[in-house]
Write a structure and sequence with these properties.
The structure holds two protein chains of two kinds. By secondary structure, chain A is mostly helical. Helices cover 49% and strands 0% of the residues of chain A. The longest helix of chain A is centred in the middle third of the chain and has 22 residues, at 60-81. Chain B has 13 helices and 23 strands. Chain B has helices spanning 14-25, 41-45, 50-55, 118-121, 123-131, 149-164, 201-211, 257-264, 313-322, 394-398, 410-419, 463-482, 547-561; strands at residues 3-4, 7-10, 30-33, 68-71, 79-80, 171-172, 175-176, 217-218, 267-270, 274-280, 287-293, 299-303, 307-309, 338-339, 343-346, 362-364, 385-388, 423-428, 430-431, 439-447, 453-458, 487-490, 530-532. Chain B has a six-stranded antiparallel beta sheet, with helices on one face. A five-stranded parallel beta sheet of chain B has the order 9-3-2-13-23. Classes of the chains: A mainly alpha, B alpha/beta.
Chain lengths: 204, 565
């Protein structure tokens, strides 16, 4: 997996999903971390962008799992409610997902071939895991847009370090300016002469 | 025409790095192999990336290329590590084989740096003297070590001063110093560096332990607090355990031993190469070299009279077995690991658990090893208890929720928003006991893409593991209550994982070639010139992190190879 580069993200257009798939995924993520006035959620963090990029870089198996899960979710909503998931009222969306997530998968999605066999429940567990990653990733991955995820929990992000006066009980970390990997690359570029020696050695 | 070299070292982690450096510094030309890449300055500097290193386990071998299977017992078919594999690929990098690439596990380790006490070298005798023979179960293969603390003390000193450890001594030549471990064995001198700065909640932990009558002290750490040799002082960035170090504060063999060895000009490293066989002479009594696949998958042979296997207890054992070196059936046996009994708490005030390293923390040793008090739980050997005040990022926190918090929705979001900054952790290093039931071998069905047999682990948590986890959960809960915790919860008991990065024992050392694989120097009894070093040498596992003992043994092995002992 290559290092993520801080490239500009296209404003429209998806790397892997169709517009319709992205709409459904975004709606699901918005139930996992909902939006509220003053407390942003997965929509503001653009978690759907993180997921789209992750799918474009991951295995064919994962992409297929998403496609299958999305079409099964849509089929269920059409069958039971006559409309797509994204068109449902939030409370109804929550009931659909609760129904799918019973009993909840609390730890890793099931391994190997069992994962596919458990269909929608595993699909939702994967989307939930991706949503957590997309909320709190470095923004270079496409999610945690403008660090809204980090700000939600009070995490200052990618910091070079902390000072003794900050490392005391009760200190309010939200006064620390949030930094991302892009900030770190700008502040201490490679070849600035300060790079500690690691020992040369070449890959074969 | 086969290539010939003076010495081959396979794996440049904690043990391999030390041996490669000692040989290279003595003028021996060393050819070292590592399965992973030479991590770049860019990777080191911008390592603050939880998705890359925690979610995607970028440093550790992926199960898709390095399959490992597990079963709880012989009645079950082994499958790819179920707690770590899923449609998203590897997860939970702590519960997989450790990082690859020069540096190995020391690229990402937390750096908890412990000496054994004498009882850790005489676990069997100590237990039998206290409890009698009957306390060990029928399947037990517990033995004493073939050396004592006094034999290893000069080598512990070398690890601490040649590689670098920060801390405060507890016992210098019999003088109890007051700020270090009151239970440690006498040492000839203190540490070369003072202790690290700790994250905020650690003081609350210390105060609570003191009120409970315990004797907390700061854990010795393989992390620099001041400039020391090739190390620069820690900046307390909080992306520590599981991550590369951006300032070379973390004592990784990559920046200590490997860098020093490369500077001699006598070390040649081939990365992205995997050894698949150890070769022997016709009588199968002497090593003659190794065979490996290069990064294109092309097989090569290299000849040498000296081969050091240092690619982790498990991979060492797999390679020995794949080479039909069985140690009279001992190779792969006596598999041991740690359970951590990971607990979390919410504190009344901000703890800011993302500041500082995991290992910059206080510990309580009052219940370790034979110090565990008489109890009704059947616990006959204890463990250190460690505060975890730092090194916690949000994605990992979202994986460690209390059982009553929903995993999605408004309540999930609010809980994280309100409590992330108040989190605190506390855990143990509970050792499993060696047993006939627990071992690793070659999976009869699963192969990697080169056709090499996968490692198969047969292990389940035993009664003593469960008893110790329950006993220590009560102790940790009491400490957290005394700290004023608003909530306290623990990981599932017994844990769903069976790898901890502290696997040991699977090519045990001993004096009797009929009952061990290597001697005290790590030389394989049945194959002269072949060494298998690292945690695999340990006859038993202690209630401490194993790495400093492993590094000390590596210095001992190097001295032996160079004819100094």
């Amino acid at each position: 997996m290559p290092l993520s580069e801080p490239a500009a993200e296209p404003q429209s257009g998806w790397r892997f999903m169709t517009d319709e798939e992205a709409g459904t995924v975004e709606a699901v993520t918005a139930r996992i971390v909902p939006s509220e006035p003053g407390l942003p959620g997965a929509r503001e963090a653009q978690v759907v962008r993180f997921i789209d990029r992750a799918l474009s870089e991951s295995s064919a198996e994962l992409g297929a799992a998403y496609r299958t899960g999305l079409s099964e979710l849509e089929a269920r909503c059409q069958r039971e409610h006559g409309v797509s998931f994204a068109a449902l009222e939030e409370g109804v969306q929550d009931r659909v997902l609760l129904d799918i997530d019973t009993p909840p998968i609390l730890t890793n999605p099931l391994g190997g071939e069992e994962a596919i066999a458990h269909g929608l429940r595993t699909f939702f567990a994967i989307v939930r895991e991706h949503t957590v990653q997309g909320m709190f990733c470095d923004p270079v991955y496409g999610g945690n847009h403008e660090a809204v995820g980090w700000r939600l929990v009070g995490f200052p992000g990618a910091q070079w370090g902390y000072q003794p006066d900050q490392m005391v009980a009760g200190y309010d970390s939200t006064v620390i300016p949030v930094k991302t990997l892009a900030d770190l690359r700008r502040e201490r570029p490679l070849n600035d002469g300060s790079m500690p020696h690691h020992g040369s050695g070449s890959d074969t | 025409m086969s290539e010939r070299v003076a010495a081959i070292v396979v794996g440049l982690g904690a043990a391999g790095g030390v041996i490669a450096e000692q040989l290279a510094s003595a003028g021996v030309n060393v050819l070292a192999f590592d399965k992973g890449p030479m991590h770049s300055p860019e990777e080191f500097r911008y390592k603050h990336d939880e998705v890359r290193y925690y979610s995607r386990g970028q440093l550790v071998p992926q199960l898709s290329t390095d399959p490992v299977t597990w079963r709880p017992n012989e009645g079950t078919r082994a499958r790819l590590l179920p707690w770590a594999s899923g449609v998203l690929g590897n997860s939970e990098p702590l519960h997989l084989p450790p990082s690859i690439g020069p540096g190995g596990g020391t690229l990402h380790w937390g750096g908890a740096s412990w000496r054994h006490r004498e009882s850790d070298f005489t676990m069997r005798s100590t237990i039998i003297e206290r409890f009698g023979h009957d306390v060990l179960t029928d399947d037990s293969t517990m033995v004493d070590w073939p050396l004592h603390y006094a034999d290893l003390e000069p080598y512990y000193d070398r690890v601490e001063w040649e590689l670098g450890v920060s801390g405060l001594a507890g016992n210098v030549r019999g003088d109890i110093c007051g700020h270090g471990n009151p239970f440690e064995e006498p040492r000839q001198r203190g540490y070369p560096m003072p202790p690290l700065r700790r994250a905020a909640a650690d003081d609350r932990f210390r105060a609570a332990c003191l009120r409970l009558g315990m004797q907390p002290f700061q854990q010795p750490a393989a992390i620099a607090s001041i400039p020391y040799k090739s190390l620069s002082p820690c900046e307390s960035c909080g992306f520590c355990h599981g991550y590369l170090c951006h300032v070379n504060a973390k004592q990784s063999s990559r920046v200590t031993s490997v860098a020093a060895a490369l500077a001699t000009g006598n070390l040649d490293i081939r990365t992205a190469c995997r050894i698949f066989r150890v070769n022997r002479d016709a009588a199968e009594a002497r090593v003659t070299g190794v065979s490996y696949f290069d990064s294109e998958g092309v097989a090569h042979d290299v000849q040498s009279d000296l081969v050091v296997l240092a690619c982790y207890a498990l991979e060492n054992s797999r390679l020995l077995l794949a080479s039909e070196i069985t140690g009279n059936g001992e190779v792969g046996r006596h598999f041991m690991t740690h359970s951590f009994g990971w607990c979390n708490a919410v504190l009344p005030e901000y703890s800011n658990p993302f500041m500082a390293s995991l290992v910059a923390a206080s510990v309580v040793d009052d219940f370790n090893g034979e110090l565990v008090p008489d109890n009704d739980d059947g616990v006959i050997w204890g463990s250190v208890i460690t505060s975890i005040p730092g090194d916690l990022q949000p994605i990992e926190a979202a994986h460690s929720l209390p059982p009553q918090v929903p995993r999605w929705g408004h309540a999930f979001k609010h809980w994280l928003s309100e409590n992330y900054r108040r989190l605190f952790g506390i855990h143990n290093q509970i050792p499993s006991f060696p047993s006939r039931r627990h071992y690793c071998d070659l999976d009869p069905h699963v192969r990697d893409r080169f056709g090499q047999p996968a490692l198969r682990i047969t292990h389940d948590w035993a009664d003593h593991d469960v008893a110790a986890l329950r006993y220590f959960e009560r102790v940790k809960r009491r400490i957290c209550e005394e700290m004023g915790a608003l909530d306290f919860w623990t990981e599932p008991l017994p844990p769903p994982y069976h790898l901890s990065t502290h696997e040991v024992g699977t090519h045990r050392m001993g004096e009797d070639p009929g009952a061990s694989v290597v001697d005290v120097f790590g030389e394989v009894h049945e194959c002269r010139g072949l060494y298998a070093v690292g945690g695999g040498q340990f006859p038993t596992l202690s209630g401490y992190n194993p790495t400093e003992t492993l590094q000390a043994l590596a210095y001992l092995s190097a001295d032996h190879i160079l004819g100094k002992t």
